[in-house]
Amino acid sequence: MLQVWRKQEERRNLFRILSTKAKEYGMDLVPLKIKEIPVHEGVRLKCLVPQCEYYGACRICPPNLPPVTEIRAALKYFSQGYLAVLKCPAVKREEVDKIEMVLLEAVGQMEKICWTMGYYRAMGLAVGGCKLCTSCAPLGEPCRHPYRARPSPEGLGVDLTLLARKKNILIKWPPEKEMIFLGLLLL
Ligand code: SF4
Which atom of ligand 1 lies at the shortest distance from residue 142's CA? Predict the structure, then answer.
């Protein structure tokens, strides 16, 4: 019983620390259970139809990722998730990359905090194809920023819109006055 209480207290403390970090980036953090994360092959298909500019051009986007069945099974490895939510007024297409870079940086920082606190499974993911290089390194060569580059949850088959709506974050497609950028942190 004492052990369970300690574990819960530890998680509450972690949530406080992560929320503080998220706030530094103007973001909110929403805890979620791993079983709440919807994964579907159809999400992966949406990378192809209509075709995303990163499809096949980025080494951490489809089709250069494991099959969705593998991702679904791999999620069972984790015990806790957090949705990182970055809301901002609607911007033009050319400004989206800058916001996604902020999100990537924030998620990376939160992953690092978890890892240094002993959560060795910590893994941060952020929406959008990788923008760390002007063009991605060819598949036969190593990634140029392996510790910073992260696949998007959607590329892995996670229905982020559905997940956000389940958590009362009402994403609208197409976006109207507000845009919402999402990251996923798994422990
Ligand atoms: S860091 Fe560069 S090489 Fe690595 S996935 Fe991103 S764009 Fe590609």
Answer: 3
